[in-house]
Amino acid sequence: MPLAVTPDPNLKALLQTVGLMDADERIDSSWFQDPIGGLRTILSDPVQRAALRVLLDLVLGSDSGSPDGTEWHPLLDGGAKGNVFLTVTGDVIGLAASIATPTGISPVGVAPTGISPHTRGSVRVPLVDAGGDDLRAIAATPDGPLEITLDLEFDSDAPMDALRVAATVDIEGDAAVRFELDGVDVGGGPETLVVNSDELGRDLVRALETLVRDALGQAAPGADRTADHLLGLLGLDDVLPPLPLERLASDPAALRTWFAGLATTPAHREAWFAHLAGLLGAPAPAADAPLAVELAEFGGAHLDLVAEVRGGELDLGLAIVVPGSAAAVEASATLLTVPLTGTAPVRFATRAAARVRAPGGTAPLVEQPPPPGNPTIRVGAISGGVSFDGTRLVPELRATDILFDHCELA
Asked: pLDDT, tens digit, for every residue of 58-72?
């Protein structure tokens, strides 16, 4: 007679995730003959996939600000302005990164507190679709486009409760923009208005701009700055070239053309990135290349968003720096590379590097004679690590800011 055992919920989720326990809580003895085979089906087997979702929720928890129909599981400790998430939307698993104003976005049904509007920006990319018999990679394809969203929630005296803007782009160059305005009263009581880029005409663009500016302008002190940053990010500030919203559906290249115009003009690139930093609550970046803004800080390390134009392409990526006096650890990844001319597709995960640099500060590693003398020998820093160029790993060892006998070498 078999022994009936009620396992601990955590243990049950783990055993079902790896395929050792079936949906009826029975141990599958054949699993021990091929445990690797059981692990291979974690995402493709419905029972294992469902158990994995339960396990993720038990171990990592779920973010209260997850979009409707999606579970976002945080991978970093809470308390910072930003986080990185494993996302689950039906059978699609992906990654996301988000950053919010210090008070964050209030949960549904809870009145916002603190500075208004509450702002949250995120970048999400679906990775695999496990809904069929086999896993299907969909990252940045038309079935899994890169999505950039910006959510703002307002106090009760604003003409709308929330504004959500979402833009998607895939490797084939197709792009779309969606506006969602919650709590707008157009005469019949509050309702939600949704406008997609394929519905946008010039008159509707002007109406949206006026409504958004009015909502932001009536919010708490500081909201005018938020209004300027949001409208500036879309090129609706009468300074930067305007985003051609009405042409996005009929001309997929319109978004790239607009972005290329911003990226290839230094003043426009710096202004646009400053608007992005302002929305994230960060100071404007220094006017140099690459542009960088701090997204989060944890344990002395900081996570930066980086933008740089090189070789006719715009690179957007993340960098993590762990500072130290003797040495600093630096890791970076280029997440998105956008060709600014031609019809070449957008590329993802094109570069990455991890290095240790000595010294960790700005003082040179070697300088003889030392200040206040006039040095004849200097080595600014030495770094070593590994880099990835999109196809292979390459070891690195380099010295920078070298001076020998009054001659600059690097």
From this structure: 888 888 777 778 888
Q: Is the dihedral of CA 46, 60, 110, 158 positive or negative?
A: negative
| Whether the Cβ atoms of residue 118 and residue 73 lie closer than 8 Å to each other | no
Cβ–Cβ under 8 Å, residues 364 and 378: yes
What average pLDDT score do residues 200-222 get?
Answer: 58
**Exposed/middle/buried for residue 209 (C-beta within 10 Å: 0-12, 13-18, 19+):** middle
Residue 330 CA to residue 319 CA, distance in Å, equals 7
Q: Give the bridge partners for 322, in sequence order.
A: 329
Residue 105 has pLDDT above 50, yes or no: no
Any bridge partners for residue 185, and if so which? 190
Largest pairwise CA distance in the chain: 89
From residue 396, give the alpha-carbon distance in Å to each of 234, 351, 356, 383, 390.
Answer: 39, 14, 10, 8, 15
- Average pLDDT value for residue range 146-162: 77
The CA distance from 96 to 86, in Å, is: 7
Burial class (CB in 10 A: 0-12, 13-18, 19+), 371: exposed
Note if the bond before 290 is cis, omega within 30 degrees: yes
What pLDDT sits at residue 79?
A: 63
- Dump pLDDT digits (tens) for 274-304: 887 777 667 777 666 678 877 777 777 888 8
- Name the helix (H) or strand (E) containing 353: strand 347-358
pLDDT band at residue 240 using 50, 70 and 90 as cut-offs: confident
Residue in 62, 53, 154, 58 with CA at minimum distance from that of residue 101: 154
| Predicted model pTM | 0.57
Candidate from 100-109, 192-201, 326-335 with smallest mean pLDDT: 100-109
Q: Which helix (H) or strand (E) holds 383?
A: strand 377-388
How does DSSP assign 158-218, residue by residue? SS-SEEEEEEEE-TT--EEEEEEEEEEESSSSEEEEEEEGGG--HHHHHHHHHHHHHHHHT
First to last CA, the chain: 78
